Amino acid sequence: MFADWPLLSLLVWTPILGGLVVLLAGDHGGAQGAKRLALIFSTATFILSLSLFTGFDNSTSAMQFVEFYPWVSSFSINYHFGVDGISMPLIILTAFITVIVVIAGWDVIKTKPSQYMAAFLIMEGLMIAVFSALDAIFFYVFWEGMLIPMFIIIGVWGGPNRVYATIKFFIYTFIGSVFMLIAMIYMYYQSGSFSILEMHNLKLSMDEQFWIFLAFLMAFAVKVPMWPVHTWLPDAHVEAPTGGSVILAAIMLKIGGYGFIRFSLPITPDASHMLDWLVILMSLTAVVYIGFVALVQNDMKKLVAYSSISHMGFVTLGLFIVFMIWENPANSNLTGAVLAVEGAMIQMVSHGFISAAMFLAIGVLYDRMHSRNISDYGGVVNTMPVFTAFAVFFAMANVGLPGTSGFVGEFMVILAAFKANFWFAFLAALTLIIGAAYTLWMVKRVYFGDVANENVAKLNDLNAREVLIMSLLAIAVLILGLWPAPLIDVMHASVNNLLHHIAVSKL
Amino acid sequence: MTLDALNISIAWPEIFLLSMTCLLLVVDVFLKQSQRNASYLIAQFSLIGSLVLIWMNMSGQRAEAFNGTFVVDPLADILKIFICAVVALVFVYSRDYLKDRNIFKGEFYVLGLFGVLGMMLMVSSNHMLTLYLGLELLSLSMYAMVAFNRESGTSAEAAMKYFILGAIASGMLLYGISIVYGITGSMNITDIASSLIKQTEMNIGLIFGLVFLIVGLSFKLGAVPFHMWVPDVYHGAPTTVTSYIASAPKIAGFAIIIRVLVEAMGSLHNEWQGMLIILAVLSLAVGNIIAIAQTNLKRMLAYSTISHVGFILLGLLAGTKAGYSSAMFYILVYSLMTLGGFGIILLLARAGFESEELSDLKGLNQRSPWFAFMMLIFMFSMAGVPPTVGFWAKLSVLSAVIEIDMLWLALVGVFFSIIGVYYYLRVIKLMYFDEPIETAAIDNTPGMQIALSFNGLIILLLGVYPGALMALCFSVFAV
């Protein structure tokens, strides 16, 4: 029904302008007006984003819903939007999670709720724009602009050490991205255009590819984040308010993975091939080592933050293992590589739901007890049975229990890794054990056993609002886990096209 | 010689401004202190009048007057329009501040207008003497303005320092001019250029002259290692004067660099490129690193200015059309953002309270969310974070440098701008994350508040749509 509308522009600007309206609504009368407006705008954006799905043509890998207008003529930078099967699911994920975040912050945020809601709405628009921009500088503007609301969110509504965390977050990401900017400008002088699709077809020498790949790696590895540049994430997560953690884990990390798919692999295929060992090494370190780090955390949020890094290791592993799969003579066709990349994509979407749910579950506890320490809890199931049911379900999804979305992506990536190298697959599969260990151990200590202290005894179970957000996420996790086919169908053509593209050397 | 040969008509904006300033000088004497607003209005009328005259006389052509000593070209028109507009904003911002300190006097406007006249002469100079005349008119006005608050010891000290260092710089510049005159036999910029093109051999005397010229210009612009006066003068001068010094004169400084280095000595590009590289890298490094240690907002902005000068020099040294236009874009954008930054200080200042320490900004978001947001825009723009216009300024300079295959210089540029991000973020941290110490309401006149909001929104709008201004900057260079 929205087929001939400039859908992507609407998706980007509705929340941004909505955010400004919410700002103007202000905090009068407990900010009820501002909150309702925020809910209306975010829901409207989500409904609009669904029409991306209904109007999407699965059979082509070409960009769809394309909008193209000249923007800055001196540098031939264009207002160029378009989505393919890789970006479209992430846009819907963004719109969905923002609705959840708005509902989750409803009663919880007491200081300046209108600014809080506005920041999330504006960030939603910027993130959707990042996923749909097809012009490198256009992409960069939103990529950097996105930092501003997040900086404010962590800094204003965060925990006691928020200033350190938010400045670290900003500077880390900024360092990574300026080198990407230099790489983009360099390619502009090679190709005469900032169009990402033209950069895909730009011939580059091995030397050029090498440096461009490293510049992109700096930007995206920080964002994912990959070991060893992950250290900003636990700080940012611990200090951020629940909504900030949810957006960080569910969407922002995905932007790093998306960057690898949109920039690194197709623009510098030969350098990606040459340096794939580096990325695989970093990914496997994340999966195994960070998994062990998660095991020893006392802070629930930190534990989930490390678990996020570990799970995102699967994404980068899936993306860069394709070259090794090709090198293995047993795989003559693309099937194994397709499995790897699609597994990485599903892992991204699934982790978006699961990490959001995990952080929201911690948020539920934190709002009641104002503590994130595992040792302050115990026996929560006795006082909050409904909540515990949800929490245990999401924990199982985090572990990768079959039937939940967590299983599908990890399983596909491990399967693909087998086609490359047994030991890679073995190391990756270790996460099923380590992940189970840290997640279930936390579940045991927090939720089960006897009631640990009188604070836990006084806990109230979920209210209707919390049940609503938890159920929405649980449904999403279940659907994706039991029936991932629609998602795979959507991305299949684009993934195939990507793999055909990177299989051809640019030299 | 008839009047026609002088081609006096293209200098109407300057003539108008001079007449109005003299009129103001006379009228102001007869005004009572309660009628001082009239001086302010006359000053604003003069600026807007000359702006309109420049606008109406814009022909898009190059024209010379006064025997080729005075030139009007598209570059001059655009820079002059910006100078008038920026100074008009400075005057709007200044009024409350001056009244609160009992220095709301006509002399401030007279000196300010003479300074504008000097800047317009610099921008339009096609002769070393015109250039020097304009520069001295500006500098002398600024020396007096820095010492404008007679009661203040720091102002007097700053003025003294500024005067002595400025005089040395002028001397250097004059010496450079005389050497160039000795070699080329002319002080007319067009003639110098044509004479230098004929020189095929490297002339050591010429290099000497060039060095003196660059040293003189760097002093005026505040590039490292000739930056020592900048923090002290910015700090010591009344904030109104600082906002004046930090904004418009930089545009004029850019103009004389274009006139001297590009138009007159363009054929020596290889020689001055190396010198500018040193100045640019040092300015970027010193400006950004020392700014971190500052606790005074005016000093921090002074060091930030030094680092911006480094970026502008990066654009200039590229020596291409893209480079010059990127530097011009940068300087115009810079003058608007730095004006906004000082505007916020002026907004928060009140009688007996300067509000110039960083800690005075604490909790601004709780006192005034709107102006905290404006300051956020200014700071992110200075840091070069999109979607503000500062990002486009940095982007165009970097791309000009990359275009001439000086990738390492671009990397140096971004490296130091990463360091720069830290101290801009700290300002935002103070405004948004800390509890306010000051709780006094912001009670400035609506005019100032509207002008400041306008200034901030311009930064944002130019950030969303930078194309027009970029194209304008690109169109004025013929190279």
Descriptive notes:
The complex is a heterodimer of chains A (507) and B (479). Chain A is mainly alpha-helical and 507 residues long. Chain A is 75% helix and 3% strand. Chain A is built from 23 helices and two strands. Chain A has a two-stranded antiparallel sheet with strand order 1-2. In chain A, helix 19 runs parallel beside helix 22. The longest helix of chain A has 35 residues, at 335-369. The termini of chain A are far apart. The model of chain A has no long low-confidence stretch (mean pLDDT 88). Chain B has one domain. Chain B is mainly α and 479 residues long. Chain B is globular and about 65 Å long. The A-B interface holds A 70-75, 115, 137, 140-142, 144-145, 147-148, 151-152, 155-156, 162-163, 166-167, 170-171, 174-175, 178-179, 181-182, 185-186, 188-189 and B 325, 365, 369, 376, 380, 385-387, 391-392, 395-396, 398-399, 402-403, 407, 410-411, 414, 417-418, 421-422, 425-426, 428-429, 432-433, 465-467, 470-471, 474.
Distinctive features:
heterodimer; A: two-stranded antiparallel ribbon; 23 helices; 3% strand; B: 479 residues; mainly alpha; two-stranded antiparallel sheet; 21 helices
The SSE order of chain A reads: HHEEHHHHHHHHHHHHHHHHHHHHH
Decide which structural class fits the backbone of chain A.
mainly alpha
Alpha-carbon distance between the termini of chain A? 45 Å
- Gross geometry of chain A: globular
Q: Which word captures the global form of chain B? A: globular
Largest sheet of chain B: 2 strands, antiparallel
* Strands side by side in the biggest sheet of chain B: 1-2
Q: How much strand content do the residues of chain A show?
A: under 5%
User: What is the count of distinct domains of chain B?
Assistant: 1
Q: What's the multimeric state?
A: heterodimer
* Helical content of chain B (DSSP H or I, runs of 4+): over 70%
How much of the residues of chain B is beta strand, in percent?
under 5%
Number of DSSP helices of chain B? 21
Task: Find the biggest chain interface.
Answer: A-B, 35 and 36 residues
Q: Could you tell me how far the N terminus lies from the C terminus of chain B, measured between alpha carbons in angstroms? A: 33 Å
Instruction: Output the radius of gyration of chain A.
Output: 22 Å
Tell me the series of helices and strands of chain B, N- to C-terminal.
HHHEEHHHHHHHHHHHHHHHHHH
How are strands sequenced across the largest beta sheet of chain A?
Answer: 1-2
Low confidence ranges of chain B: none
